Structures are given as structure tokens and as C-alpha cells.
């Protein structure tokens, strides 16, 4: 299956497609090639917190780029945990990705309490404005001063909560397709 982002102006429509990362199996994703390349670049040698994993495409892409990924996702909506683990095994990155099957509203405060810090926080979980705002608030507490915060689906017409939450934040961002990128640094 091949898809593309469609739309005009600031609104785009998300399309899912199956994409292989090299010689491994195709994984369902809505990330564009440009978004994948940017995540790989930011994840190179980084400690990464991923919020929202689904079938593992982005976690695997970042791990293959040399990142160490803590993937937080309850895997309840898509029931995707078994598929993610199978994909991690197929790509040989189980030593670079740790899965925590938790909701971000429980996981992020616990990570702050544990003193964890990350070079990159990648948010692609629940897209409701209040949850995105929560995830961004806690992500900022988890970022190292030189870190970057990246949110997916900014401007995606079926995910208006992402734009609503990020625009309320009123901090300049850089956009690659629908990746809203803050940093590195500038905290």
C-alpha cells in the first residue's frame, strides 16, 4: 500500500502505508520519507523518549540510526504490542528499544520522578489537544537543555488537537511535512 499526504494550505490528510526500513518487513506508518529522515537525523546517538509507538516504525527507524529508545504506548487502541515486538526482532533492534505499556499521563510524571532525561522526545500518541498539551508539558521537563521536542501530525486535518495544543504554546517551531520541531536547545 502506498499513500501520500493530500490537502491544500495548512491542512493535510493523513494516509497510512506499508514501508520497509531496509531489508526488514514493511511496517504500517503515516510518516513521510522526509519525516523519517528527520527523525533519524535527530535520533543519531541520542537517548530518545517516544510517546506513541503503534507497530514500531518510528522507534525502529530511530534505533537503526543509533538512538536508544524508550517507547511509551499502552498499545490498547491498535492492540499493536505483539506486532511491534515482532518488527523489533525482525530488524534486530531489541537491545536498543525498551517498551513501556503505559499511558503517557502515568508514564511521563514517573519518568520525571525517576530523574530521567532525554536528548529527543518524539510525541505521536493520543492526538486530543489536552493530552498533547500534557505530553508537551511533561516532555519539556524530561528534555536535556540541548534536546529537541518533535510532535507528529501538526496541521493534519484529522488531528486538529495537535495544532491547537502546539499553537497555544506560542514558541517558534520548524516544520517538516507534519513534524513540529522545537530545538535542539532553546529551552
CATH topology: the name is: Rossmann fold
Count of helices? Answer: 6
Q: Note the main sheet.
A: 7 strands, mixed
Give the strand order, joined by hyphens, for the main sheet: 5-4-3-6-7-9-8
CATH level 4 superfamily: Vaccinia Virus protein VP39
CATH architecture: 3-Layer(aba) Sandwich
Number of domains: 1
Unreliably modeled segments = 1-9
Helix content: 25-40%
- Secondary structure class reads alpha/beta
Radius of gyration, taken over Cα atoms and rounded to an integer in Å: 15 Å
Instruction: Give the total of beta strands.
Output: 9
Q: How much strand content do the residues show?
A: 15-25%
Q: What value does the average pLDDT take?
A: 90
Query: From the structure provided, what is the oligomeric state, counting identical versus distinct chains?
Result: single chain
CATH class placement? Alpha Beta
Order of SSEs, N→C?
EEHEHEHEHEHEHEE
Shape: globular
- CA(first)-CA(last) distance: 40 Å
Overview of the molecule:
The chain has helices spanning 33-43, 57-64, 81-91, 104-113, 129-142, 160-169; strands at 17-20, 26-29, 47-51, 68-72, 97-100, 118-123, 143-151, 174-176, 179-182. It has 187 residues and is of the alpha/beta class. The protein has one domain: Rossmann fold. The longest helix has 14 residues, at 129-142.
What's a concise summary of this model?
The protein is an alpha/beta fold and 187 residues long. The protein has a single domain (31-182), classed as Rossmann fold, CATH 3.40.50.150.
Amino acid at each position: 500500500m502506498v499513500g501520500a499526504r493530500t490537502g491544500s494550505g495548512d491542512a493535510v490528510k493523513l494516509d497510512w502505508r506499508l514501508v520497509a526500513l531496509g531489508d526488514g518487513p514493511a511496517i504500517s506508518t503515516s510518516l513521510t520519507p522526509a519525516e523519517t529522515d528527520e527523525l533519524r537525523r535527530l535520533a543519531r546517538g541520542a537517548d530518545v523518549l517516544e510517546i506513541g509507538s503503534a507497530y514500531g516504525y518510528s522507534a525502529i527507524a530511530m534505533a537503526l540510526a543509533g538512538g536508544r529508545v524508550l517507547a511509551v504506548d499502552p498499545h490498547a487502541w491498535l492492540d499493536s504490542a505483539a506486532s511491534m515486538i515482532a518488527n523489533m526482532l525482525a530488524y534486530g533492534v531489541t537491545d536498543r528499544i525498551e517498551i513501556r505499556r503505559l499511558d503517557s499521563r502515568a508514564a511521563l510524571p514517573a519518568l520525571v520522578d525517576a530523574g530521567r532525561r532525554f536528548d529527543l522526545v518524539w510525541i505521536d500518541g493520543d492526538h486530543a489537544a489536552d493530552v498533547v498539551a500534557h505530553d508537551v508539558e511533561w516532555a519539556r521537563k524530561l528534555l536535556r537543555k540541548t534536546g529537541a521536542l518533535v510532535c507528529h501530525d501538526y496541521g493534519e486535518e484529522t488531528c486538529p488537537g495537535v495544532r491547537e495544543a502546539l499553537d497555544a504554546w506560542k514558541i517558534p517551531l520548524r516544520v517538516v511535512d507534519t513534524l513540529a520541531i522545537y530545538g535542539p536547545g532553546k529551552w
